[in-house]
Amino acid sequence: MRTMRLIRTPSRLYRLLALAEMVTWTLLLLGMLLKYALQVTEVGVRIGGSLHGFVFLSYVVVTVLVAVDQRWSLGRLAMGLGSALVPYLTVPFERWAHRKGMLGDSWRLREDAPRSFPEKVVALALRRPLLAGLIAIVVVAVVFSVLLQLGPPTEWFA
């Protein structure tokens, strides 16, 4: 039950994913240090990169979910998504968003009537969280698998 309390509010869920993004950046950077600077092993990049990729995609999903629910502007949504591209920026962005009141202490669309298609999708997800969570995990896993098949991002355009 403790896990469900962590994701009960947009603020808590967003903080959890921002921290996870930071931790997985650290794992990836340590793996890169072991592989490229110390030339010890590439296992760290494989493990850290995989964990980071999965958490990155999850952070993107949660950022969009919170942005729609809390009615962020497109600029703020872009800032939230962009914070995942720079190592360790998700936590400062989350803290800034929290101070600005962008995260909320409750899910607005659990109660309020949705006004747009994105709000209808988010409202449905919030009203059926187990099903939505399962679908989100499957979608992230499928995207993650496709990206693994494509190889490292540095090789996509080579």
Note the main attributes of this structure.
mainly alpha, single chain
Describe the structure.
- The protein contains seven helices and no strands.
- By secondary structure, the chain is mostly helical.
- Helix 2 runs antiparallel to helix 5, helix 3 crosses helix 7 and helix 6 packs across helix 7.
- The N and C termini lie far apart (47 Å).
What's the helix count?
7
Q: What is the string of helix and strand elements?
A: HHHHHHH
Q: What is the typical, i.e. mean, pLDDT?
A: 89
Helix share bin = over 70%
Q: What structural class do helix, strand and pairing data support?
A: mainly alpha
Main beta sheet: strand number and arrangement?
A: none
Overall spatial form: globular
Rg to the nearest angstrom? Answer: 17 Å
Strand content: under 5%
Q: Any low-confidence stretches, pLDDT <50, length ≥5? A: none
How far apart are the termini?
47 Å
The number of strands is 0
Write the layout of secondary structure elements.
Layout: H1 2-6, H2 10-37, H3 43-69, H4 74-82, H5 90-99, H6 117-127, H7 129-150
Helix pairs in contact: 2-3, 2-5, 3-4, 3-7, 6-7
